[in-house]
Amino acid sequence: MALIRTATELDLPAVTEIYAHYVRHSTATFEIEPPDCVEMKRRQAEILSQGLPYLVAEADGRVAGFAYAAPYRARPAYRFTVEDSVYIHPDFRARGLGRALLSRLIELSESAGFHQMIAIIGDSGNVGSIRLHERLGFRKVGVLEAVGRKFGLWIDTVLMQRALDGTGHAAELGLILKHGTPRTGILQQVADFLRQSGNHRWVGLYEVDRASQEVRNLVFSGPGAPAYPAFPLDKGLTGQAIRQRRTVNIGDVAAHPLYLTAFGTTRSEIIVPIFDDPRNAVVGTIDVESEKLHAFSDWDQVLLEDCAEMLRPVWNLGPE
Ligand SMILES: CC(C)(COP(=O)(O)OP(=O)(O)OC[C@H]1O[C@@H](n2cnc3c(N)ncnc32)[C@H](O)[C@@H]1OP(=O)(O)O)[C@@H](O)C(=O)NCCC(=O)NCCS
Fold first, then answer.
1. pTM score > 0.85 for this model?
2. pLDDT digit string (tens) for 293-303?
3. Is the domain covering 181-317 a CATH 3.40.462.10 domain?
4. Topology, domain 3-163
């Protein structure tokens, strides 16, 4: 049985060796000189730092193969499209490891919010790779003829493509959080993004200030400043009730007099607390209002919870 797991630096000598074999002896890759371990480490770090998966398959106590997803192209409109690579040690081929690695890579890329996966397969004659991709739902979208020259031959690339379930929203949020500065700038972009992506009327982000025992609006997106820019901690949505669950949903808000006094909510508002895990305390809330009743689908809730999770480290940045 093979184990599929995220690659670490310790796997790199084996990964480098597997890749070098295919650089030297096959047309599966268009590299001609095998990169050394230092270069493979740089490439791995770059992939992982972008939140993309880099996996190895372990079999018989050895690293038997590796796979990763990399950005398909650098220009920003391509940011929800990834390209896969998968290489199995010659001793371990045709044992299902390629399939296991690529399946996991697809799952992880989907949950990271990517939208399409592309395979650029070196050589029309690479039946193993073409078959593997077909089995996992890729379809052939074209052949670029004679675009490579290796071993004195002209070589084609076969392009294959597979849709991923990701909507791109989590990835978009990830990009905002990674590239935005300073804190208020990030929060403003997040509020704007949430409002536009969900077509909502208004989004506000609040922080909990324990020193002054206050909940305070930091940013908002939409028409009109918040009705309650600041209110006492014990009156708002950060009391015992929300400490005990992850999401305060519309039903809770409408049913609880405390929430009504604090926010004047209707059934078209959703409030999601942001938890600080180590302290098990609420550090902030996301408040989203819509024009419509019953405006929030399961999908909206998932996105907002993901957002609350991703925003957690931003609170630690402190005000600029
Ligand atoms: C292509 C590669 C990744 C496939 O991995 P693998 O572990 O050998 O393949 P699996 O055992 O998981 O097989 C997956 C499917 O491909 C088929 N397959 C694998 N190798 C094959 C081959 N040489 N000829 C025909 N079919 C092949 C398998 O039969 C299986 O299909 P099935 O489910 O219909 O039986 C691996 O052979 C490899 O590393 N090749 C060299 C490098 C390479 O080409 N990488 C891809 C770069 S895009």
1. no
2. 777 765 677 67
3. no
4. Aminopeptidase (3.40.630)
